[in-house]
Amino acid sequence: MQITFLGTSSGVPTRSRNVSSLAVRLPQRSEVWLFDCGEGTQHQILSSDIKISQISRIFITHLHGDHIFGLMGLLASCGLAGNASRIDIYGPAGLNDYLAACSRYSQTHFSYPIKVHQSRPGVVYEDDEFIVKCGRLEHRVTAYGYRVEEKDRPGRFNVEKAAALGIPSGPLYGQLKRGETVTLSDGRQISGQELCGPTEPGRKMAYCTDTIFCEGAVQLAQDVDVLIHEATFSHQDAQLAIDRLHSTSTMAAQVALAAGVKHLIMTHFSPRYAPGNDIQLEDLRQEAQAIFPNTEMAYDFWTYEVERHRSTELESVGTRSDRP
C-alpha cells in the first residue's frame, strides 16, 4: 500500500503545493484509489509515476472546491487515457448532481461507466482484500473521513512440512493456505492452521480532512498504521481554526494520540505559513511533535509506503523548497 501526496495545500495552490488530493496505490492489483481531487490534480498525476489508467475508485470527503474542482477534468481525461473499466466514486449527497450538471453544461460524455455512491457512516466498499469505512467529521459542510483496512492474511504456508506429511501439491495447498481443513485420500484430516505461520495483520490508514478536532476522527483512526490528518493552522492561530472548523497542528496530534495510531502525517496547510513569515511550517511540526513525536509533514509528490508492522518512506519525485 503506497500513498502519494498530490496536493497538500488548503484553499488555494501555492508554487510548491497543490490543493487536496492523494493517491493510494495497490501494486498487487494494479489499482489506484484517489482521495479528493482538487483543481489541477490530473497535472500533478502527470508529474508523478501514478497512472491515470489505473484509477478505479475515487473517495471525496466533501464538496468544497479545493477538494472537487479537478474531478470533472480528471474523469474526462480517464476516458482518453484508455480506461476501459468503470470508475466508482464515493462522496456526500450532492456529488452526483454536481457531476451531472458539469457533464450537461460542458457537453462531456464519458466513454466508460461511472457509478456514484453516496457515502454514509459505516462500510462504503468491501472486497476479498480490503474494506473501506467512512465516518462523519465536523466541518462547515457535510464532510467524511475514510479508513482503508487491508484484511488479515494467513501466515506463511510451510511447504516443507506439508510435503513431509505426504500432502500432494495442487488445489489442496490452496485450501490449507486459507486455513481450511482438508481430508486426504487415506482418511487423514489436516488443518491448514497447523501448516501456516502467525496471521499477518493487514495494514490500515485513515484520511481525515476537513475537520476540527472531533470524536469522529478519533474513532475512524483507531490503531491505524498511518493517520493522514489536516493541520490547516498553527496552534497560535487556534481561533481561526475554531471559527472555520479546521484543525491546528496540535489538534491533529491529539487525534493521533487519542486514537493510538503508529504514525501521523499532517497535510492541508494554510498558505499563510510560507517561508519568511512569522510562523512557518516547521513551527507546526514542532507543535505537533510535542504531543505526538512520530509526526511528519506531507509535501507534494512524497510517496510513503505502509508496510506490515512498520512503515518506510520512499524517495519523493523532485524537490520542494518547503520539503520537511
UniProtKB/TrEMBL annotation:
<dbReference type="Pfam" id="PF23023">
    <property type="entry name" value="Anti-Pycsar_Apyc1"/>
</dbReference>
<dbReference type="GO" id="GO:0042802">
    <property type="term" value="F:identical protein binding"/>
</dbReference>
<feature type="binding site">
    <location>
        <position position="62"/>
    </location>
    <ligand>
        <name>Zn(2+) 1</name>
    </ligand>
</feature>
<keyword id="KW-0819">tRNA processing</keyword>
<dbReference type="GO" id="GO:0008270">
    <property type="term" value="F:zinc ion binding"/>
</dbReference>
<feature type="binding site">
    <location>
        <position position="139"/>
    </location>
    <ligand>
        <name>Zn(2+) 1</name>
    </ligand>
</feature>
<feature type="binding site">
    <location>
        <position position="64"/>
    </location>
    <ligand>
        <name>Zn(2+) 1</name>
    </ligand>
</feature>
<dbReference type="InterPro" id="IPR036866">
    <property type="entry name" value="RibonucZ/Hydroxyglut_hydro"/>
</dbReference>
<comment type="function">
    <text>Zinc phosphodiesterase, which displays some tRNA 3'-processing endonuclease activity. Probably involved in tRNA maturation, by removing a 3'-trailer from precursor tRNA.</text>
</comment>
<feature type="binding site">
    <location>
        <position position="210"/>
    </location>
    <ligand>
        <name>Zn(2+) 2</name>
    </ligand>
</feature>
<feature type="binding site">
    <location>
        <position position="210"/>
    </location>
    <ligand>
        <name>Zn(2+) 1</name>
    </ligand>
</feature>
<protein>
    <recommendedName>
        <fullName>Ribonuclease Z</fullName>
        <ecNumber>3.1.26.11</ecNumber>
    </recommendedName>
</protein>
<feature type="binding site">
    <location>
        <position position="67"/>
    </location>
    <ligand>
        <name>Zn(2+) 2</name>
    </ligand>
</feature>
<feature type="active site" description="Proton acceptor">
    <location>
        <position position="66"/>
    </location>
</feature>
<feature type="binding site">
    <location>
        <position position="66"/>
    </location>
    <ligand>
        <name>Zn(2+) 2</name>
    </ligand>
</feature>
<comment type="similarity">
    <text>Belongs to the RNase Z family.</text>
</comment>
<keyword id="KW-0479">Metal-binding</keyword>
<dbReference type="InterPro" id="IPR013471">
    <property type="entry name" value="RNase_Z/BN"/>
</dbReference>
<keyword id="KW-0378">Hydrolase</keyword>
<feature type="binding site">
    <location>
        <position position="268"/>
    </location>
    <ligand>
        <name>Zn(2+) 2</name>
    </ligand>
</feature>
<comment type="subunit">
    <text>Homodimer.</text>
</comment>
<keyword id="KW-0862">Zinc</keyword>
<keyword id="KW-0255">Endonuclease</keyword>
<keyword id="KW-0540">Nuclease</keyword>
<dbReference type="GO" id="GO:0042781">
    <property type="term" value="F:3'-tRNA processing endoribonuclease activity"/>
</dbReference>
